[in-house]
Queue: 2 jobs
Job 1
Amino acid sequence: MSGCLLAGFMTLALSGPDFRLEWMHSVEHVAWREEWLIKDGMLDLQRAAVQGSGAGMEPGQDAVLSDGWWVWTPDLPPQRELLLGASGATEGGWRICDVATCREIGRAASRAIRLRPCPDQSNSAG
């Protein structure tokens, strides 16, 4: 089963309904990643991980250290969309990865990028 995301004016085809969102914190320069699932036309956060802590980078309460990453399951309801800031102040942009490939968006400073499921993704997982 494939998936699809709209990232600003781009359409990103995914190999499945799940994807990973990765970025570098602009102040702490610490890697962060989240695992998302497109389900019923929404974005459902499955797991989060951070490689350290600092300003705004605190791991969740149930975090466990695994291979250098603090990993936990956030308590967040499904989201219609995510707004990804693109400050241009980091070492890179946002990386969206599926099992086949990673794509970088938001490397240069610009307006926030809206990330949401494609309109026909209302039943991607279930």
Job 2
Amino acid sequence: MTDQTFHPIAARPAPVQHRGVVGWLRSNLFCDLPTTVSSLLIVAFLAWQLPTLLNWAVFSAVWMPNLDACHAANAGACWGVVPEKFRLIIFGRYPFEQQWRPLVATVLMVGLLVASCTRAFWKPWLVLLWVAVLATFFTLMYGGVMGLTSVPTDRWGGLPLTILLASLSIVMAFPLALLIAMGRRSTLPIIRSFCTVYVELVRGVPLISVLFMASFMFPLFMPQGVSVDVLIRVLVGITLFAAAYMAEVIRGGLQAVPKGQIEAAATLGLSYWLTQRKVVLPQALATVVPSIMNNFISTFKDTSLVTIVSLYELTGSHGLALNSDADWRPYKIEAYLFIAMIYFAFCFSMSRYSQWVEKQVNKGQQR
């Protein structure tokens, strides 16, 4: 005889609200005891330090480029250093009266980058747009034609130089990294060995060494009377360095593609390159989108190292603006924070765009 006694099921807890501000706080800051304790400690620390920070950065700060007011405001920041040294920080040693040229060139380059990240512009004529914008950029920056005063590349600096180095090195490094990653998986020993040696050799030295060799050592091997512009040498050095790191990221994505899909493509009669283009690369690149964007962001920030070869990009222009002026030198922290905001704006934009791309390429896996 089986036991027919009724055993009631205990009531389940009510579902937790996960939407709205309260739901977000409950899910992210107060979901369990350790998280709650950590959140309360962080909030307490901010409540302790935030008034002092706000007093220095906002309430007692000087916003106008008034040197006497900055000296008098001992407890506040002197944000007046930003408008006072703005043009020197943004455009470096570019001739003052000609600074409209790097301004227009920078706006065109940023617009091109935004267009390249917009789906509506993903057309074959986008390549022609890149050629046109780059030609206009170098024409405006260098001059020597159409009545523009010639400005050598060693006078270029600030934000235009940072955007130029980062954009071109990323654009040129990506296809090179793709070929190197595929070469490391090649069945031909010579190609595989060459790509492996290249990656291990470049990754084994810091970027400063690559820039130093490109700027100072490379000219020693050139024939007498032959010289390559330092900007081109630095650009090639950054490109080769970024390609080595990016190649390993892409190789990880290639290895993540199941071998059975490659074999299935072969049974359908697809050639090697068609298999790579139609089957392997779409899945591999979609897998490593966050890592690729992380490499892009790292390359953008690494352009600050070109200062060691006398190319004064954004951070180098900061040194030019303040190290030569003893009156404004005490307020270099405020200028550094201004530069940090510019870097953050670009890097955060790239990070958000990476998340959008990741969602687009993974739509097939969403439920």
